[in-house]
Amino acid sequence: GRTRGFDGGFRAAIPFTLAPLDGGQATLVRYAVTAEASGMVAAAGGDAIEGVLASAIDELVANLEREAAGR
Length: 71
Prior knowledge:
alpha+beta
């Protein structure tokens, strides 16, 4: 048989902005998520990809909070 692959792709961007609060005692973190799946990747697993991305972002935020608390 012939080798088959997925026609399509996935792209995500998560830019962060940091701003000091309370005279530098705290930091405000703002972020936005942009994700795009195309082709067969979107057709085969677009909803699953959104769920995995949401979980990964939750984990990232929790890690940032944990690291910030350990100053």
